[in-house]
Specification:
By secondary structure, this protein is α+β, with helices and mostly antiparallel strands. It has two domains: 1-54, Arc Repressor Mutant, subunit A (Orthogonal Bundle); 58-136, Lrp/AsnC effector binding domain/regulation of amino acid metabolism (RAM) domain (Alpha-Beta Plaits), CATH 3.30.70.920. 36% of the residues lie in helices and 19% in strands. The chain has a four-stranded antiparallel beta sheet with strand order 2-3-1-4. α2 (21-28) packs across α3. The chain is elongated, with a radius of gyration of 20 Å.
Amino acid sequence: MIDEVDRKILAILQEDARTPNAEIARRVGLAPSAIFERMRKLHENGVVESFSAHVNPRAVGLGLLAFVFVRTDESGDTLDTARRLAEVPGVLEVHNVAGEDCYIVKVRAADTEDLGRLLRERIRKVETVRATRTTIVLETIKSTTALPLDGDAGTEGRKRRE
C-alpha cells in the first residue's frame, strides 16, 4: 500500500517526471537516498509503470484525434481482436467495453483522409470486425494522464480499501 509520502512523490512525478531526486526530497522533507529507495519500490511494485515524454501530436503531423467504436463477431471472452487492433499504427488505446460496442479505440491521424485510410485498410481489415462508428474530436478541453492522488476523485474508493 502507498502512504501519504508516496502520494506526494507520485504527484510530483506526474507533474514532471524529470524532477531530480534532490528536489523531490526537498519538497517532501526526506533525504534524497530515501526518495531514491521509495521510487525504486514504487517502480518495482508496479505503481510507477514507466516514464515517458509527451509529444505534441500536431508537431509530428498527427493533429486529428478520433474515437472508433468497434463491434465484432468475436465469441466468448477472447481478446484476439483487441490485440490485433492494438498493433495498428496510429492506435493509441484499445478499451474492451460493455454495451452495444465491443471496443473503443483511440486513434491519431494526420487528417480525415489519413483517418479514412486507417479505417479502411487496417481496422476494418481485421476479420472479426463487423462494424465501426467513428467520432472525430473537434477540440480537447482536458487531456491528462495524471491520476487524482490527493483530490476528491476516488477518495471514497480509497477510504474503503484502507
